[in-house]
Amino acid sequence: LTLLSDLRRAADQHEFFLLYQPKLRLSDGHCDAAEVLIRWRHPQRGIVPPDRFIPFAEQTGAIKAITLWVLQHALNQLASWQQLGWQLSLNINVSTRDLGQPDFPALVDNALRRAGVAAASLCLEVTESAIMDDPAQALRCLQALNEMGVRLSIDDFGTGYSSLAYLKKLPVQELKIDRSFVSGLDRDEADVTIVRSTIDLAHHMGLAVVAEGIETEAVSQRLRSFGCDQAQGYLYSRPLPAMEFIAWLKQHR
Ligand code: G
Ligand code: G
Ligand code: MN
Ligand code: NA
Q1: Does the record carry Transmembrane as a key word (predicted)?
Q2: What SS3 class is residue 74?
Q3: Do the Cβ atoms of 220 and 29 come closer than 8 Å?
Q4: How far apart are CA 134 and CA 165, in angstroms?
Q5: Ligand 1: which of 37, 40, 59, 98 to mutate, judged by most atoms within 8 Å of the beta carbon?
Q6: Could you give the CA distance from residue 17 to residue 14 in angstroms, rounded to a whole number?
Q7: Whose alpha carbon is nearest atom 19 of ligand 1?
Q8: Ligand 2 centroid to 247 CA: how many Å?
Q9: What CA–CA distance (Å, rounded) separates 50 from 57?
């Protein structure tokens, strides 16, 4: 339970840091985006992964400050990369609580302005379960963000229970296929069926498709043959600190 007070202090004490995982175009490997992933360097516990503290932060309301911290730091980082000539955009994960907050679009707008970053350089990832927690509120929130020009992505697609009726109404541009369907693509025919139908569904709805959790060349090749647009995974790169991400980009291009 001390984790809660620790969590409240973490942002002030500079215990959070961000990693960036490259997101590539599958057809030619071009990379112009990354997903931002938070880590917590706890003075006693060591590196605490987000699975361990994000759900907890959601329950206690600490998530609000964390999301704000992530937005500010990631967008400042993006602004300096763009000033150096890197044409990049970032994907940032938002939580259920964030979507339920009526002033969330205004917070995002404020963070973009303060950093001097165009809304189109930001893509927010929202899970299906966050949307289904309060679909009407999520829709209002996503509509406001969409009107600002922020791009929107459905994360962990296939693991929640969002109905296609909702998906149809949402102003999203991207769908991320959960890695639980991706990892077995080279051997599991059920996964093949699910992934191919998801790609077809997304394309028919005008959405770009990202596959996450790609660890082997065989999986990458299958996804390319299915027409998947973008890819993330350890095959290309693990999530990296900012400096290493830029070093990776230089090597990669
Ligand atoms: O990077 P990793 O696999 O440890 O991430 C685990 C989970 O934590 C993922 O579901 C990811 O979406 C979530 N996550 C990572 N960074 C953030 C963040 O900055 N904010 C929120 N809300 N979730 C995050
Ligand atoms: O839920 P979300 O998609 O935001 O979670 C992304 C998480 O997946 C991050 O914690 C990241 O560290 C992890 N991840 C990224 N690439 C791979 C991969 O190739 N394999 C596995 N097992 N995890 C990955
Ligand atoms: Mn994500
Ligand atoms: Na995911």
Answers
A1: yes
A2: helix
A3: no
A4: 15
A5: 37
A6: 8
A7: 38
A8: 21
A9: 10
Q: What is the pLDDT along the chain (253 residues), one digit of tens a residue?
A: 577 788 888 877 789 999 999 999 999 999 999 999 999 999 898 999 999 999 989 998 889 999 999 999 999 999 999 999 999 999 999 999 999 999 999 999 999 999 999 999 999 999 988 998 999 999 999 999 999 999 999 999 988 876 777 788 899 999 999 999 999 999 999 999 999 999 999 999 999 999 999 999 999 999 999 999 999 999 999 999 999 999 999 999 8
User: Per residue in 63-97, is it b (16+ CB within 10 Å) or e — as a string?
Assistant: bbebbbbbbebbbebbbebbeeeeebbbbbbbbbb
- The model's pTM is 0.96
Atom 16 (ligand 2) nearest CA: 233
In degrees to the nearest 10, what's the CA dihedral of 180, 38, 153, 166? 70
DSSP alpha helix (H) spans, 11-103: 50-60, 63-83, 96-99
ipTM associated with this complex? 0.96
Alpha carbons 31 and 111: distance in angstroms, whole number: 24
